[in-house]
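With this grant's support, the team has encoded backbone shapes as discrete tokens. A representative record is reproduced below.
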Amino acid sequence: SVDRPGNGAPVESGFVCAWTIVGEEFGGCAETDSGGGYALEGMSAGEYEVEFSAEEQDLLRQYYDHKANWWEADPVSASLGAVTPGIDADLVAAARVEGQVRRASNGTPLPEVEVCAWSTDGESTIRCDYPGGDGHYSIGGLPSADYKVEFWPFEEALPVQYWNHKASWAEADVLSLSGGSVATGIDADLGSPPPPVPGGAPPSFVPPVAAEPG
């Protein structure tokens, strides 16, 4: 089954997928039911890597057995005609970064920009998004860590910018995120230096919301 840690509330409409360890052949996917249960059927005999995901619910992807990355996954053995029970997961809440990208010269939304959150802890967590027509972006699925946010415009005349209105990676402000939190106001004004803000413009944090007991 697939649940949430702490209160054990089930994760409905999540996905469980398997790939063979050798050759990385697709073994199948299943959607979790209202109780968080699932069944992967019709698989060939062999050893598999099993992935659990529910990113639309702002939950972090996980690999069996409670591993954050596919290369750390424990193998799961499948035999013809046999059932392998207990291949469970507890999906933890992810953090999210949101903001708006504008053109500095006139303040209009600037959608043609790649916005990426890069972890600074050596784990190489990278998540990106592209602003919509209103210049707003939202990057979810982030593990608890420290990040720097990069704004890469498609227009060659516009320089790359890092939050908070910095010109280089070394100067970029660090954004500390915890599971389930949302940092808003992580904005960029591309094209020229923005007006100075005394002390810098701090982001707004929304703390994690405690899940209701199941």
Remarks:
- The radius of gyration is 21 Å.
- Residues 41 and 107 are 54 Å apart (CA to CA).
- DSSP finds no helices and 17 strands in the chain.
- Residues 207-214 have pLDDT under 50 and may be disordered.
